[in-house]
Amino acid sequence: MFYHLLYPLHTEFAFLNVFRYITFRTIYAVLTALVISFLLGPAVIRWLQRLHIGQQIREEGPKSHQAKSGTPTMGGLLILIAVVCSTVLWTDLTNRYVWVVLLATVGFGLIGFWDDYLKVVKRHSRGLIPRYKFSLQVLVAAVAAAVLAQAPGFSTQIALPFFKTVQFDLGWFYPALVVLVVVGASNAVNLTDGLDGLAIGPIIVAATAYMIVAYAAGHRKIADYLLISYIDGSGELAVFCGAMIGASLGFLWFNTYPATVFMGDVGSLPLGAALGLVAVVSKHELLLMLVGGLFVIEALSVIFQVASFKSRGKRVFLMAPIHHHFELKGWEEPKVVVRFWIIAIILALLSLSTLKLR
After folding, report:
1. What is the pLDDT of residues 315-338, one digit of tens each?
2. What's the CA angle centered on 312, arms 310 and 317, to 5 degrees?
3. Tell me: the pLDDT tens digits for 242-301?
4. How many other C-beta atoms can be found within 10 angstroms of the C-beta atom of residue 302?
5. How far is Cα 113 from Cα 108, in angstroms, rounded to an integer?
6. What is the SS3 assignment for 343-356?
7. Beta strands in the chain (DSSP E)
8. Residues 6+ apart with CB under 8 A from 95
9. Cis bond leading into 202, ω under 30°?
10. Model pTM?
């Protein structure tokens, strides 16, 4: 019954022949997720307000953020609902990759939900104990890596962006790379989520880039022309990416400055993990460092800040992640957000250019 939603109808009704095409279903996955977000958004926000699920603002943060205290958080639930519903409606549900990415995304969403629940509802300031949180992330990513390893013809080789003829076979070490990519991307997005609309904008940009990459990798003629690895079935992830784009656009409607809802870990963790898994399946794992370069910068700013303070007792930035540094330098919040979006777009365009470079 689950396998008889929209995609198989092209074999039963001639006028639904367009359902065969990934491009058509991707467009409608975007629109479906967008409509779901628009329709459910106000109700979800009211529900979070009734439950008094409001954001707690750190005292050591920028003073301008204190006015945001109490703003509903855990709005990432809206994104997850829209992504799951749209993906189930428009993808080929016999596709192994769709299920791996979708279930892993939900798994990271549950981890984020648990963390948010402890912090916001139970008022535990630390939320889920970091080592438990990290261990659960590694576990979900490892299970996804194990399932992918069983996929017929799935390769353990990785390619270098800009050098298509240079490939390395990691063999037994490849699952470790999968875990690193997925968990790293998840936490990098989580660190970026600190200003209104800051994280969700680059998510839309990165999902758009990987929508193109997944489609190209899953189309034999395009993959051969571009000299990239052909991954049979990976094209369906373009539909999943479309669902991510639509859900994120709908969420941005409510999250744009001044935000009426924040996504919380229940949104940032699964979105980052989803990007990581799409990168893995499409065999463009290392390209994620460029596509999601803004997330990498945010994560590195925290690493450098902590390392410098512990080793020298001095800070590299006024405050980390780096978006807070620019706030404390005097940039208004919308200026930081829009300029970071511009950087994300530039990096995504550079990443897409590698598809053509030989």
Report:
1. 999 999 999 999 999 999 999 999
2. 80
3. 999 999 999 999 999 999 999 999 999 999 999 999 999 999 999 999 999 999 999 999
4. 16
5. 9
6. HHHHHHHHHHHCCC
7. 157-160, 163-169
8. 233, 236
9. no
10. 0.92
